[in-house]
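Data availability (excerpt). The following record was deposited with the supplementary files.
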Amino acid sequence: MSFSGEVKKELSVQVPEARHCQLAELAAIISHCGTVCVNSTDRLQLKIVTESVFLIRKCFTILEKAFNIYKDIAVRRNGSNQKSRVYLLLIPRHEDAMLVLQALKMMDQNANPLEFDGMVNGMLIQKSCCRRAFLRGAFLACGSLSDPKHFYHLEYVVNSREKAEHICYVMRFFQISAHIIARKRYYVVYLKEGDQIVDMLNVMEAHQALMELENIRIYKNIANSVNRKVNCEAANIRKTVSAARGQIEDIQLIQDTVGLEQLPEELQVLAKVRLDNQDATLKELGEMLIPAVGKSGVNHRFRKIKDMADRIRENKEE
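Predicted structure:
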């Protein structure tokens, strides 16, 4: 199962005790997966269609706890894919459908069913606990979360900008700032920062997934830190080797042309030490000298050797 599936599985078994939270979560689910339709006898029916078995179980449980109504569930194949299924929860009776929609403040007694837009009434999410339930229900209905081992990305895919802005509005109550982009016929509310995704899982009360995500983040931070140190050390080694090669070339040029005896005594000593210890760092070379010289002092002497080698090269060109 994907990481997103694991999150939804965890959220599906969390049923709020308070009825107002149950209604807020159910309203979010119906907003994104629900359809109000009229049957052949001009009576209302409410349908919830999804590919998530966790969502359909959650809907059934909330309806069981919050309403004493008849409901039916059907399972169908999704096209030619034998493994994929579509789940349909149907409230077939007009009175029951009206009862649910009125409780969710999505339709009054005289409303035309064609005017149903699926927007969640703000009165249902006035409390902090209800806002959590709303975000949890919306994630079950239209959310997804990438595998954090690869990258951080949480999103809600909705069919109108109004719904996307409403989700962002509710997130801001928890100091979570999401972004919206258009993707074909849909609008996507997304988070890409690990810290905000952790906060979002906490808001939805997906604590098990939160701990798993945090463990992955810690592992990735340690791995990244190790990689940075290794890369830094490798770069330093390459830099040291490159510098040593240039120093040896300068010394050998002087030796093959005018001779090392033309160098001041302190430079002669350093040149011979470098030729005998071609892999040594500047610090190690300085410790080999008598008296010992610091890294900057060794570097200063090599600059003098280089200046002399450069003058020899210039004379050869002339």
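Summary of structural features: The first strand starts at residue 34 and ends at 38.
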